[in-house]
Amino acid sequence: MRKVLEGMIVMGLLLAAPAAFAEDHRVFVGDGSGTNGFNPSQLTIHVGDTVTFTQPSRATAPDAHNVHATSGASFRCAAGCDGESGGSGDPHIGPWSDTITFNSVGDVAYQCDPHAQFGMRGFIHVVADTGGGDGGSSNVPITSGFTGAWFDPAQGGHGIFLEVLAGNQILAWWFTFTPDGQQAWFGNVGAIDPATNTATVDALQTQGGRWIPN
Fold first, then answer.
1. What mean pLDDT comes out for the span 33-62?
2. I need a surface site. Which of 74, 105, 198, 211 has the fewest CB within 10 A?
3. Strands of 80-81's sheet, edge to edge?
4. Handedness of CA 89, 91, 92, 95 (dihedral sign)
5. DSSP E strands: which ranges in 128-179?
């Protein structure tokens, strides 16, 4: 059984007009253990959206990172951004977080200056928020904001659980019932396609599950 989860459809359960609101996307700088990388390293966002780059505190193997646009935009940030009062885009070891707003359509490439030679680079594709009027995809990007349990009040008796994972993967479970009233659970891990903001999950049906306290 194959199900396609489209960002616009899922978000439609949450917002009446999903494309009308700017969204903040999170990019983690390193993974908290000294590994060099951006997670996720590629994003597709809409004009007006923001991206928050966050370097968490590191208990071991500290590295100094920054985020520096190399094409399509101009910013260099770490402990604040160049040009801000008291800000500096020099690579920084401690925890820091900076939010950048993208107001123009185009492609933005960025890197961590000390670790670019080791592949610590990222890419942001900024598209127009057309609402689908141009025939293109109007699905909102599938980000960590989708993680959670959701249901449609107009469709009682079933709901979905989603968890957005690293590496453009998503865990999806649909908890529902068979026509004769028996529980039916469908789920699996599937791939997110950032280009179309869709996720395809080859769902498996579990057997023998019962709600507690049974």
1. 80
2. 211
3. 42-46, 121-127, 106-111, 67-71, 76-78, 80-81
4. positive
5. 148-150, 159-165, 169-177
